[in-house]
Amino acid sequence: MEMRLTPIVCIAQDYIQGKTVDDIRLRQAILELPNNKTEHLPGYLPLVPEMPVLLTENVANEIGLSNGTRGILRQFVYDESPEDIRYQDKNFPPNTKFITQPKYALELLPENIAKAAKINKKTTILSVKHKALPLIPAYSMTTHKNQGQTLGKIIVDLVMPPGPLEVASAYVPLSRVKRLDDILIIRPFVFATLQVKPSTAQIEELKRLDRIAQNTRKRFQFIV
């Protein structure tokens, strides 16, 4: 609204036995399922040009479009719906445009193949095909999701949830940047978070990898 852009909400398409879900209450229930119940294909996907987004599926690994790929939304292409579709939801402003027939986004990002999801209603289990763009807004991401990535500048939260801590809990987010100046820790945290020791299994794995490295150097030391 501050950018004076029309917000777009991409509505997932749901099918049961090849037919579109017509029951309003059932459709609403499916659309409002948490993402972890629909293989991370959101029922409502709000999009605004220039927002950061994240791919949640392997689309085309050969050109770098894989699960976890980050980008900036430049363009969103869709087919106009034959009828004016409105979804009463207080979370979206009145001028929101609702889309049910997306084609692609991020200029080169194709539409995802439909995924199967299941919804449990009382004692009846329905097999639902959930079709949506494999995108989520990416203003932030979890430690698990950003493993292996190198980022420009990051803001990290080191306040950990209850339960045992793993070495990766602190190591992964703190090692995503190349310079100390490019990281900001958002709030105070328990210093013990940085003092977690590796488990016995992790230590044994490190020793195993070290032995492999030493044997490799011995076997190939005369190869130029």
TrEMBL record:
| Signal peptide stretch | none
* Top-level taxon of the source organism: Eukaryota
Output the SUPFAM superfamilies linked to this UniProt entry. P-loop containing nucleoside triphosphate hydrolases
Look up the record and give one Gene Ontology term from the biological process aspect.
DNA replication
One GO CC term, this protein: replication fork
- In its UniProt entry, what is this protein called? ATP-dependent DNA helicase
Q: Which organism is it from?
A: Rotaria sordida
